[in-house]
User: What shape does this take?
Amino acid sequence: MHKLTKEQWKELKQYRIVKEKDNAIFLASNYAEALRTTEKHTKASIPRVKSSMWVRRYAFVVVALLFMLSKYRLLWTGTLKNIHVIDSFQGENWLPSFYFEKDEWVKVSDKEAKKAFQTILGTFAGDTIQHLAKKTKISRLILWENVWGYVIWMYSMLIPEKDKALADLDFLIQNGVWEGIERRSPFGRFLNRRTLEEAMNDYKRVTCCFFFEIPGCSMCSYCPRMKKNML
Assistant: This one.
């Protein structure tokens, strides 16, 4: 069992993972409270919009775990019930941080990496997305793309630093690792016939996250609806 170094915790902080439990408001497994708090801080009142806005924030947990696996081949031993949500803001924008209740990680080999990726995608992303999609009548694909946007951002920074990072990202767009989670890789679908390099250099969404449905907000610059509205 491994504990993270100060430098590794510092790296995780860029993905909003913190070592302090101050201002903890609920557990990440408490979906009802996640939606209520999202509505309170973002003014999103429509259920599917609340789900989307929450996953846009929670996605940092998934990305942080993928980062640790790709850079260090370390897998966290906790569960959703060990993740506390910390109330925090950047200006007026609600950007919660996340506290991992236990600092226990296991080293995995390259041969064990597939199973580790499946654990992250299934336990920390798939279960949440399945629940919210059913509860709030939103497409799973939209929620997965909310995660994907941060995944490709993280790997675009990690690839120059770590040789295996590109192979890991390529692995995530293949169908095999998604067995038991989704019928085929949603990440692969979001490439939309583009290469990984093209997607990293010019990010474009395939689905709309409904951000524009929040009072006072407009469409994101990479929203697929933007092009339609310009025609």
